[in-house]
């Protein structure tokens, strides 16, 4: 399996150019805003989103276009804004081991910084007249908000079916990766069918990515800065837990619901719930589903011509489901 460094090598030049363009898109005359956005840029992770944009564009076109950089910047601005706002909503002081914006500059400033990032995305798309890209990214932001609200609504009742779970992760997480691939495609082709294929491809990859994240919660979660059992603490109904609850064992269901509802702050009880879910085959089931979704995604692009970008894109998909953090 290719590692992130090997995958990124295929778009190394594009990523360098993108970093300069993205920093330019963040610039402000307000010193405080500049200071905060510089801090945000330094927190960047593996940069999988721009990689999805550029690899998709290169796979279809052989090279990226100027609009591909606009697409990547739009997505990164929107995604960064959503992270800043999420930290305020969740009252989170850290994200992956680094202080959040709201922890350092308080909620009011964090919300305004998030608003600024969204506004910069709108401005960038209007200035470059990239309205197709704006629609793709705006649709993703809308879906992400709807997915979060759907999850909050359903978490109160603890009666999520597997189908509703897929709806939540499709909107909350997968819509962003879908927009990366759709925008990457739209930046180099006007063929609507091709753009639609890559949107679906990205959606499936995003769903597999989220299921992998959910699996981490039942072991090795500390490797990604996400404490094991955190989803249970937050009463999030993820696929391993849903499977265990749907097994038909009345006693198992009663015990798990009691822990999630009434003892989700008790480390011993959380450990008991994790053990019950693992023992029931919930993690194994989620892993099988994740691999099936990944294969469905790869099947969508198998007829496209072979090139280095396609190999790297497949490598990126494989990485999302095989990563250990």
Observed structural traits:
single chain, 325 residues, Farnesyl Diphosphate Synthase, 2 strands
The geometry reads as: globular
Distinct helical segment count: 15
For the record, the CATH architecture stands as: Orthogonal Bundle
Write the element-wise H/E pattern from the N-terminal end onward.
HHHHHEEHHHHHHHHHH
CATH topology value:
Farnesyl Diphosphate Synthase
End-to-end Cα distance? 15 Å
Number of domains: 1
User: Main β-sheet, in a few words?
Assistant: 2 strands, antiparallel
Q: Compute the gyration radius: what is it?
A: 20 Å
Q: What's the helical proportion of residues?
A: over 70%
CATH superfamily assignment?
Farnesyl Diphosphate Synthase
**Unreliably modeled segments:** 220-226
Mean pLDDT, all residues: 87
Question: What is the compact description of this entry?
Answer:
This protein is mostly helical and 325 residues long.
Structure explained in plain terms:
It is a single chain. The chain is an all-alpha fold. The chain has one domain: Orthogonal Bundle (Farnesyl Diphosphate Synthase), CATH 1.10.600.10. The protein is built from 15 helices and two strands. Strands 1-2 form a two-stranded antiparallel sheet. α4 runs antiparallel to α15 and α8 packs across α9. It starts with a helix and ends with a helix. About 2% of the residues have low confidence.
């Amino acid at each position: 399996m290719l590692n992130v460094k090997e995958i990124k090598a295929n778009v190394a030049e594009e990523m360098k150019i993108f970093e300069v363009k993205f920093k330019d898109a963040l610039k402000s005359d307000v010193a405080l805003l500049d200071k905060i956005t510089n801090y945000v840029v330094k927190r960047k992770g593996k940069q999988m989103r721009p990689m999805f944009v550029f690899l998709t564009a290169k796979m279809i076109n052989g090279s990226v276009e100027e609009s591909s950089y606009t697409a990547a910047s739009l997505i990164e601005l929107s995604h960064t804004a959503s992270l800043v706002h999420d930290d305020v909503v969740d009252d989170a002081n850290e994200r992956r081991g680094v202080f959040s914006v709201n922890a350092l500059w308080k909620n009011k400033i964090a919300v305004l910084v998030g608003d600024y990032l969204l506004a910069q995305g709108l401005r960038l798309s209007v200035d470059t007249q990239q309205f197709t890209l704006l629609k793709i990214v705006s649709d993703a932001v809308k879906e992400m908000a709807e997915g979060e609200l759907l999850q909050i609504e359903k978490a109160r009742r603890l009666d999520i079916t597997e189908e509703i779970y897929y709806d939540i992760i499709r909107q909350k997480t997968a819509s962003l990766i879908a927009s990366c691939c759709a925008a990457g495609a739209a930046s180099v082709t006007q063929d609507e069918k091709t753009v639609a294929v890559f949107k679906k491809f990205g959606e499936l990859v995003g769903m597999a990515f989220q299921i992998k994240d959910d699996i981490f919660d039942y072991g090795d979660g500390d490797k990604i800065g996400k404490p094991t059992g955190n989803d249970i603490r937050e009463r999030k109904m993820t696929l391993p837990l849903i499977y265990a609850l749907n097994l038909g064992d009345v006693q198992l269901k009663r015990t798990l619901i009691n822990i999630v509802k009434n003892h989700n702050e008790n480390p011993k009880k959380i450990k008991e719930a994790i053990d019950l879910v693992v023992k029931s085959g919930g993690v194994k089931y989620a892993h099988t589903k994740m691999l099936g979704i990944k294969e469905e995604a790869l099947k969508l692009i198998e007829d496209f011509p072979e090139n280095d970008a396609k190999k790297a894109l497949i490598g990126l998909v494989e990485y999302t489901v095989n990563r250990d953090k």
